Amino acid sequence: MLNVQGVYKLIDDNTILRNITFTIQPGSIFGLIGPNGSGKSTLLRCITGIYKMDAGIIEFNEQPIFDNTFIKEKIGYVADYNHFYATYTVQAMINLFHDSYPTFDPERFRQMNELFKINKRMLISKLSKGMRTKLSLMLALSIHPHLLILDEPTSGLDPASRRAVLDMLLTEVCERQIAILIASHNLSEVERICDVIGILKEGTIEYTNSLENMKKNIRKYQFVLKEDVPTDFSSIEGTISYKQKGRVHYLVTKDNDKFELAMRDVNTHFIEEIDLSLEDMFIYSTGGIEHGE
After folding, report:
1. Residue-wise pLDDT tens digits, 99-149
2. Quick check: helix, strand or coil at residue 173?
3. Alpha-carbon torsion, ordered 254, 256, 258, 259, to 10 deg
4. How many CB atoms lie under 10 A from the CB of residue 196?
5. What angle do CA 181, 28, 173 make, to 5 degrees?
6. What is the 8-class DSSP label of residue 123?
7. Quick one: which of 230, 271, 269 has its CA closest to 253?
8. Which helix (H) or strand (E) is 22 found in, with range?
9. Domains, the chain
C-alpha cells in the first residue's frame, strides 16, 4: 500500500504541496486530477523519491521511499517529459534498466514491443514524444513493479496506442494486483480506468473518494417552478453551483439529502437529474467555467 500522510513541499520558499494525505491499496488505480500548476508533477516526484519532502510521510508497504533503493526497485515511473540520455540508443536504455533493476524482464519488454514496434537501434533523440512515452512505459512495466506512477501516460499517443496502454494498465491491476497512481488531464481516460479520484488544487487535495461515490455525491438538477418563490437556492447547504436561465434553474450539489430536504415544500412543474461526466464534476468542484447547460 502507498501511504502519503501530511506531506509538504517547498520550492524557492514557495509552498507547492500542503498537507497532502491519501492512500492507494493494491489492485487499485488512483486518478490524480487538477488544474495546471496545482502541484501534480511535484507530488509524483516526491512519491518516487526524486524530490525530498519538507514534512510528512511517504511510505510503500510501510517502508519510506526516499533514499530507499530496495523500495525504489519496486516502483515504476513514467514521467510526462522523459529525459532519457539523448545520445543513447533504445537498446542502451534497455541495457541500463537490465543492469539497474534485478527484476527487469527482457522477455516482457519484447512482448510489449511486438505491439509498439520501436526500433532498438534508434537514438533516443530521434524518438517522438509518443515513442518516448511508449518506451518509458515498456521499461517501467518490464521491472514488474508493485507500484506504478504515471504522469500523463497517454500524452502524444494516437488513439489506438492510447487504448493499448490503458488495456495494459488494467491487465497489470487485474493479474498482478499492483497499485497505480495516474496524473492526467484526459478525464475521459481517468474515468474509464480509475476507481479512486483525488482532486488537487493549489497544492492541496480538495477531494478524494471512489469514483462511484463521487458520482453519487455530486449531482446536477434542473427544475422549473410553478410560481416565483423568494428562495435563495444558492444558499442551500452543499450547493456547488447555481444558475437560472429564464424559467429554468440549474443547481449542482455535493449534498443530495440537503437539496431534497430544501426542495420538499417547493412547488415545481418538474425537477430532473442531469448526468455528469467526471470532467463536469471536476469543473464544478474546482470552480471552473461552467459549460454545456
Report:
1. 999 999 999 999 999 999 999 999 999 999 899 999 999 999 999 999 999
2. helix
3. 100
4. 21
5. 95
6. B
7. 271
8. strand 14-24
9. 2-213 (3.40.50.300), 219-275 (3.30.70)
